[in-house]
Design brief:
The protein is of the alpha/beta class. The chain contains nine helices and ten strands. Helix 4 crosses helix 5 (156-165). The longest helix is centred in the first third of the chain and has 21 residues, at 79-99.
Length: 280
């Protein structure tokens, strides 16, 4: 059996996210621990963390995964944005530790025209500062990106460069996003194509560092650099591609998080059902 879930809301309380995940039929799930569209946030109260931990313990599902907010840009050359981004990353690692969440997923950001070498330097510096200030065992997962203009993380080589520069190597891993990888030019549509892509991943990064999969179909074409998620099997990767992904001996054993749309064609439950169907 695969372990699959969706991104769920924390509206009302973080503890309520566990109940929502269970109601949706999740085996695992992802949250934002705070408003993802702003810099401001409230500290977690002890009763909030206790309730979340209690609900997790009683639920029998997991792991829970946290995702960084949208505004931080760890590759930014702008001092103010960069400082806020590092501070947010540090705080988010601390919040995960308080909540007992083992994984924090982060995008690597955009170098804004300064160049990839500068982007690598900024991201590596941000990760080292944040991990140095945030004690605990939370693992930071570097997410593969769609390869948009000026972005860092669109290639496995990008990820490798950041990993090589991190001081606390035991506290970093990778989140593989199927939509992003496809948009960046990594073919996943057939068993052979997936095999070639995962061979590259194994050689450049290594499967031991792969901890979570964002399982999303893609609206754009292969290598189109379009970060637009689609329902499982309804996009350019297609059912054949996801059947191959869900039968891959490494990928099928990992927590699989769908970040798919909710519309009149299908909801979260529908995507979970489709994943389980294709996984056999």
């Amino acid at each position: 059996m695969v372990k699959v879930g969706v991104h769920v809301s924390i509206a009302g309380s973080i503890a309520a996210s566990v109940e929502r995940a269970m109601d949706a039929g999740c085996d695992t799930f992802q949250i934002f621990s705070r408003n993802p569209r702003g810099w401001k946030f409230k500290d977690l109260a002890p009763e909030e963390t206790d309730a979340f931990r209690g609900n997790m313990g009683a639920s029998g599902i997991g792991p829970a995964v946290d995702h960084m907010p949208y505004l931080p840009n760890l590759a930014s050359p702008k001092e103010e944005i960069y400082g806020q981004s590092v501070a947010t990353l540090t705080t988010e690692l601390q919040r995960c530790d308080q909540l007992g969440i083992p994984y924090l997923v982060t995008h690597l950001g955009h170098h804004m025209g300064e160049g990839m070498e500068a982007g690598y330097r900024h991201v590596t510096g941000a990760v080292n500062r944040a991990l140095g200030e945030a004690e605990g065992k939370v693992m930071l997962l570097l997410e593969t990106t769609a390869g948009e203009k000026n972005s860092v993380g669109g290639t496995f080589e990008d990820i490798r460069r950041i990993l090589d520069g991190v001081d606390e190597k035991k506290r970093v891993g990778v989140c593989f996003d199927t939509c992003h990888a496809f948009a960046a030019g990594y073919d996943l549509r057939t068993e052979d194509a997936l095999g070639q892509t995962m061979d590259q991943f194994r050689e450049l990064i290594g499967f031991s560092l792969l901890k979570v999969v964002h399982l999303n179909d893609a609206r754009g074409e292969l290598g189109g650099r379009l970060d637009r998620h689609e329902h499982i099997g309804m996009g350019s990767i297609g059912e054949a591609g996801f059947r191959a992904i869900l039968h891959h001996p490494v990928l099928r054993k990992l927590p699989l998080i769908c970040e798919t749309p909710v519309d009149d064609r299908r909801d979260d439950r529908g995507n979970l059902a489709k994943v389980r169907e294709l996984a056999g």
